[in-house]
Design a protein that fits this description.
Blueprint (H helix, E strand, L loop, with lengths): L1 H15 L12 H33 L3 E2 L7 H15 L6 E3 L14 E7 L9 E6 L7 E4 L8 E4 H8 L8 E12 L13 H12 L4 E7 L4 H11 L6 E4 L9 H6 L24 H7 L2 E5 L5 H12 L3 E8 L7 H11 L3 E6 L7 H13 L3 E3 L6 E2 L3 E8 L2 E9 L11 E8 L2 H15 L11 E3 L3 H17 L5 E6 L5 H13 L2 E6 L16 E4 L2 E2 L2 E2 L2 E5 L7 E5 L5 H5 L1 E7 L3 H18 L6 E3 L7 E2 L1
Parallel strand pairs: 1-6, 8-9, 11-12, 12-13, 14-26, 17-23, 19-20, 20-21, 22-27
Antiparallel strand pairs: 2-4, 3-4, 3-7, 5-6, 7-8, 10-17, 11-15, 15-16, 16-17, 18-26, 19-24, 24-25, 25-26, 27-28
């Protein structure tokens, strides 16, 4: 969905501006759009075929029944009638379209019911169009209670609305009824160099985003062409951007069924993250970190030590300052609450709040205001750059000496996603690292045209150059018949220069393993170009999110890195990113043998793999 709101929306704008500039694949905007729609249409068909031919029948064999309007029995119809009248109808607002009632402004990605109505008393009057906006507060999957002999069954809210829609237009005949939704351009357009108040400008732009140009319509099949043409004309959307759906709109809403269906036997077993004993109920986490670096692999290991790191700093009388970057935090963040406590305890608290974090802007603006009211110094980073790095720095007085402690991670300071995404955290008091983390914060809060870093790789200053130098070093080693190997794990790989350097490395004989969850612009296994490159994409219980990098470096110790950056132009040039080295011998061995090697040994390249747990063997799809 975000792909259409941002990337497809951008292509449509290029086409409207008559731009012919090709992308990394050599295709112009028109051809990119054509191919996207062709591929997405096939993916949508596959999605609904999977639901109707595989998932739904399999659920049925387990006693979980999803029903359509035509499959309801008398008891279920009676129950749904009462449910509609008591729980649904009171919050609905039917909208008729006539000269006195113009077309509504369809909200982005909201569900609507489209009706074609006929007045039996006026045969000469044309049929009329009407809409039912479906409030987001209503659950999209409805559980119908069973009996002692019959299990509960389930139905989509859109089917319920279509079943009883005629009750909202008494006296009219319903000719057709379909559910639909519109996707709008949701990018923010801000000239940061011209605005005086970035916070206020982003708030205003969020309001305007709700009115962004339509870029896609999903509508149930069977809609009358005349009706569809009138609807598309009203929202100024060409017909080629319409996807006709053979089922319920927005299958993502099925996620709510997971909690509705009380069948533990059909769900993943309960998972409790491991909490390292050295960090369990420790009154002073800084004493532990001062002795050795700590690496945590979430969600297999608890995120709680990271929360404790900030919580203890907030109340520790020896802590003088806390600095942290916040990109996505959640609506009920214990870390933000700890920062507020720290400010109230007279610590110097600085928060780099990224208020342009896509689709989290409103939440981050709210937190920024709350933090400022509590006395926290909130800044927004560099003009023209998003701050995407995951860093926290604690300054503590110990025996009349100031010592720094740092947390560096691959994921956000978000306790909920820390239970769902795979990420790594490094807690360290290593002075070489913490000194440069302090330099990162100085650059973010002050002025710095070209700060220098020896240990950290920081975008947009040194990250792209240093990573490509490491690729080129492996290429030179391979040409000298030295061992040469690269392992990369990240979400996306689409930077053209980096891909070209990886192709060159492959031609030289470097063995390259890529674990790319999402978009990969590199083609593996092409004779004479990428024969030594293998690509894996892993789909499992947890979202693969960690970014890990390994370079063999035959003339010295292997280089092992982790950080916030994917290998994309936006991460290299338009974001502040921090990639950090793993220097502890124990942690280096663990990251290679227990984490990276598990991915490489257990999952075959170039195929999707369904897994229950990362460290358990998976079954091929």
């Amino acid at each position: 969905m975000n792909f259409f709101e941002i990337r497809v929306a951008g292509l449509i704008q290029q086409v409207e501006a008559n731009s012919t500039t090709p992308g990394i694949d050599g295709l112009g905007p028109k051809e990119q759009l054509r191919r996207i729609h062709s591929v997405v249409a096939g993916m949508v068909n596959d999605q609904y075929e999977c639901w109707f031919k595989h998932v739904q029948p399999e659920l049925k064999t387990k006693g979980v029944h999803f029903k359509t309007r035509n499959e309801l029995n008398r008891r279920e119809l009676s129950w749904l009638k009462n449910y509609f009248e008591e729980q649904v109808q009171p919050v609905l607002t039917p909208l008729a379209i006539d000269p006195a009632h113009p077309f509504p402004q369809f909200a982005n990605k909201s569900l609507y019911i489209l009706l074609w109505l006929d007045d039996p008393d006026t045969p000469s009057v044309e049929r009329m169009m009407a809409f039912i906006p479906v409030p987001r507060i209503l659950p999209r999957v409805v559980r119908m209670p069973g009996t002692t002999r019959i299990p509960d069954s389930y139905i989509f809210l859109s089917d319920v609305l279509k079943l009883f829609a005629r009750r909202l237009f008494p006296g009219y005949k319903v000719i057709s009824v379909q559910a639909f939704r519109v996707t709008r351009n949701s990018d923010l357009y801000i000239d940061e160099e011209e605005v005086e108040n970035l916070l206020q400008t982003v708030e205003e732009e969020l309001y305007n985003r709700r009115k962004g140009a339509a870029v896609r319509m999903e509508i149930e099949e069977g809609v009358e062409e005349q009706l569809l043409d009138e609807l598309l004309d009203a929202i100024r959307l060409p017909k080629q951007h319409v996807f006709r759906i053979k089922g319920p709109i927005n299958m993502l809403r099925l996620m709510s069924a997971y909690d509705l269906i009380d069948r533990p036997d059909l769900k993943f077993p309960a998972f409790t993250p491991y909490h390292p004993p050295a960090l369990r109920h420790v009154p002073n986490i800084f004493s532990v970190i001062s002795r050795e670096d700590i690496l945590l692999h979430h969600p297999y290991e608890s995120f709680e030590p990271v929360v404790d790191f900030v919580r203890q700093a907030a109340v520790d009388p020896q802590v003088l300052a806390i600095k942290i970057t916040l990109y996505r935090t959640g609506s009920d963040s214990p870390i933000v609450k700890a920062l507020i406590d720290a400010a109230r305890n007279n610590k110097q608290v600085t928060v780099l709040m990224e208020i342009k974090a896509r689709f989290d802007e409103a939440n981050n603006i709210n937190w920024a205001k709350i933090l400022e009211e509590a006395g926290v110094h909130v800044v927004y980073g560099f003009v023209g750059l998003k701050t995407h790095c995951k860093c926290c720095l604690i300054v503590r007085r110990e025996d009349q000496v100031l010592r720094r402690y740092a947390h560096l991670g691959t994921g956000n300071y978000h306790v909920k996603t820390a239970k769902l995404y795979t990420d790594v955290s490094l807690l360290t008091a290593n002075d070489k690292i913490t000194t440069e983390v302090a330099e990162v914060f100085n650059a973010l809060t002050g002025f710095a045209k070209s700060p220098q870093f020896q240990n950290l790789l920081v975008a947009p200053f040194t990250l792209h150059k240093r990573l490509n130098e490491m690729i080129q070093r492996e290429t030179r080693n391979a040409r000298k018949n030295k061992p040469a190997r690269i392992v990369v794990k990240c979400n996306s790989l689409i930077d053209r220069e980096t891909i070209d350097n990886l192709y060159e490395a492959s031609r030289a004989g470097v063995q390259i393993e890529l674990i790319i969850r999402g978009i990969c612009g590199l083609v593996p296994g092409v004779r004479g170009m990428s024969e030594n490159i293998r690509v894996r994409s892993i789909l499992g219980r947890f979202l693969e999110h960690s970014r890990l990098f390994y370079f063999q470096n035959a003339d010295g110790e292997p280089v092992i890195l982790a950080g916030s950056a994917d290998w994309m132009p936006r991460n290299f040039y338009r974001r502040v990113e921090v990639v950090f080295p793993i220097e502890s011998p124990t942690l280096r061995t663990r990251l290679i043998d227990e984490i990276l090697q598990n991915y490489l040994e257990r999952f075959c390249p170039c195929q999707a793999v369904k897994i229950q747990r990362l460290l358990c063997a998976g079954n091929d799809w």
